[in-house]
Amino acid sequence: MTGSTATTAGARAHARAQGGTFVACMPTVPATGFAAPPQGVAAQDLTWAETVPGGGYTSRRLAAGTVLRLTDLDGDACVSVLLFNADEPWERLNVADTVKVLWQAYLSEGHLLLSDQGRVLASVTAAASGRADAFCGTSTLARNAERYGDGAAHGPSPAGRELFTLAAAKHGLTRRDLPPSISFFQGVRVGDDGAFTWLGSAGAGAQVELRAEMPVTVLLANVPHPLDPREAYTCSPVQVLAWRGRATAPDDPLWSRTPEGERAFHNTADYRTARGLS
Predict the structure, then answer these.
(1) What does 94-162 look like in DSSP terms, one character per residue?
(2) Backbone φ and ψ of 135, nearest 5°
(3) Which end of the chain has fewer CB within 10 Å, C or N?
(4) Separation between Cα atoms, residue 272 and residue 278, nearest integer Å
(5) DSSP one-letter code for 93
């Protein structure tokens, strides 16, 4: 073998030289070192700061009360989200219950992301209006291979489900553990005939905030929406920030916004109390 990486010393020098190359697509460690904390958030409260490129993924375990903010930096992000109970991952996001229990299929501020145990995994505390999708899930290997010529996780046009599989493995989960996901920044509407209409992007700078209502494992895949009609694989970076906060309490208007939501919050609080989490 020849070249600068032929020796251990050469390989080390080469690796260290890459240190500043991909910073925009890697987490800031520690998160408290992030240069521009959100307004009103102390730097020491930051727990996650990362920029995920188009075609990328990430994951993290978050404490109850953590606020997770996603920002579409350039206007072409589409972030698919999965949530799991961090302690008992067989409890996970149930998209069907999330839309039917709350009588609303179009996610917006105030929507609750429910598990099949009737508990709130996270609440949507801010959302890019009209640009969320609880219908279509994320892209698949077969569909991306058909559309772009490749859908493999490490290929030029990775599918969301393939990236979720990698993210899940980091938390001891497998492909069979992956339920349907919800996506943000790219919306759809259902017509009277049942057909989906893709609404496109919420625009550069659009933000979504989720509040973890119990300890959760979050998986994120930033890939083009399955209904995106553009021929090219188009997806821009998303900024991920998280900071310490407080889970929703009875004094929060969201707690009693709907009878169904209030019941879900009581279920969640009861679970946290039984486990000594609140």
Answers:
(1) -HHHHHHTTT-SS--TT-EEEBTTS-EEEEEEE--TT-EESSS----HHHHHHHHS---TTSSS--HHH
(2) -105, -45
(3) N
(4) 6
(5) B
Helix (H) or strand (E) holding 270: helix 259-274
For residues 131 and 107, give the distance between their C-alpha atoms in angstroms, rounded to a whole number.
8
What does the pLDDT look like over 152-187, one tens digit per residue? 999 999 999 999 999 999 999 999 999 999 999 999
Alpha-carbon dihedral sign for residues 55, 236, 228, 104: positive
**Half-sphere exposure (Cβ direction) of 141: Cα atoms closer than 13 Å:** 9
Say how far apart CA 240 and CA 112 lie, in whole Å: 20
Distance of CA 81 to the CA centre of its chain: 3
What is the three-class DSSP state of 232?
A: coil
Residue in 169, 66, 164 with CA at minimum distance from that of residue 122: 66
Q: Is residue 84 exposed (0-12), middle (13-18) or buried (19+ Cβ within 10 Å)?
A: buried
pTM over 0.85: yes
- The string of DSSP codes covering 180-199 is --EEESEEEEE-TTS-EEEE
d(CA 26, CA 41): 21
Residue 242 is classified by DSSP as: E
In a 3-state reduction of DSSP, which class is residue 225? Answer: coil
Closest CA to 116 of 87, 95, 143, 88: 95
| Residue 184: strand pairing partners | 79, 132
Cα separation, 191 vs 113, in Å, equals 24
Site of tokens 């989200």: 81
DSSP SS3 for 263:
helix
